[in-house]
Write a structure and sequence with these properties.
Layout: E1 3-4, E2 9-10, E3 15-16, E4 21-22, E5 27-28, E6 33-34, E7 39-40, E8 45-46, E9 51-52, E10 57-60, E11 80-81, E12 86-87, E13 92-94, E14 98-99, E15 104-105, E16 110-111, E17 116-117, E18 122-123, E19 128-129, E20 134-135, E21 140-141, E22 146-147, E23 152-153, E24 158-159, E25 164-165, E26 185-186, E27 191-192, E28 197-198, E29 203-204, E30 209-210, E31 215-216, E32 224-227, E33 232-236
Parallel strand pairs: 1-4, 2-5, 3-6, 4-7, 5-8, 6-9, 7-10, 8-11, 9-12, 10-13, 11-14, 12-15, 13-16, 14-17, 15-18, 16-19, 17-20, 18-21, 19-22, 20-23, 21-24, 23-26, 24-27, 25-28, 26-29, 27-30, 28-31, 30-32
Antiparallel strand pairs: 32-33
Length: 244
């Protein structure tokens, strides 16, 4: 048996599984598929032709820890999910995020508040996208990667599995850190190999290729291949591999 608040705007074409909850003020478009044990929180907006798998939680209200570096100010707007989005099983999407059309948020992924994700993006299984992140169109983030707060991934970026981005050189030990928290900027067409680590505030320039396992400690140059610990330039990216 499901619970749907009487105030919910829901098209008659929507299909809902068992034991799901839709809270007040939600707006659900046409031909939406909602699985079993799904929770849709207050005011969430879901576009046409979207699919939400079993156990997903969408529009969850954020509640940061008292010691968190990220503070909430004012009201957090509703979660907005575009048309044709796929949300995997047990994924958690917070209130205050915007998900572009035809994007995939895979099983067990987490997307925090104040996040903007473009169209045709892939957020892989178990990926964590923290606060104040922007992800451009057609970017792909593979399984179990960590996208820290205040990171920007531009269009057509590729993030391989288990990549770690960081934003705090002080690791929580001084008050000075609050003014210097900054994630990476990964520019258009850059590719970051598996298990790489990008240090706070680093800019990975357009079409940079970061080899697997690299530790990126300095801003890169466009169209270069970098590798090693710390990462250094190895060669230029082959012209045949560049975006057109």
């Amino acid at each position: 048996m499901n619970f749907i608040d009487p105030s919910v705007q829901i098209d008659e074409s929507v299909v809902i599984g068992h034991f799901s909850v839709v809270e007040k003020g939600a707006k659900i478009g046409k031909n939406v598929l909602i699985g079993n044990r799904v929770t849709i929180h207050e005011d969430t907006i879901i576009g046409d032709n979207t699919s939400i798998a079993d156990g997903a939680v969408v529009g969850k209200p954020p509640k940061p820890a008292k010691t968190s570096t990220v503070k909430l100010t004012g009201d957090v707007p509703p979660l907005e999910i575009g048309e044709g989005v796929t949300i995997g099983a047990n994924a958690v999407l917070y209130r205050g995020a915007v998900i572009g059309a035809n994007t995939l948020i895979a099983d067990l992924a987490s997307v925090r508040e104040n996040v903007k994700i473009g169209e045709y993006v892939i957020v892989g299984r178990g990926v964590c996208v923290e606060n104040y992140v922007e992800i451009g169109n057609r970017t792909k983030i593979q399984s179990n990667s960590y996208i820290t707060a205040y990171t920007t991934l531009e269009e057509q970026v590729f993030i391989a599995p288990c990549v770690t981005t960081t934003n705090d050189n002080f690791m929580g030990r001084t008050e000075e850190r609050f003014d210097k928290i900054k994630g990476a900027i990964v520019k258009r067409g850059a590719r970051v190999g598996g298990a790489s680590i990008i240090l706070p505030g680093i800019t990975v320039e357009e079409e940079t290729f970061v080899a697997a396992g690299a530790l990126v400690t300095k801003n890169t140059e466009p169209k270069t291949v970098i590798k090693g610990v710390p990462a250094k330039v190895s060669k230029m990216v082959d012209e045949r591999e560049l975006l057109k």
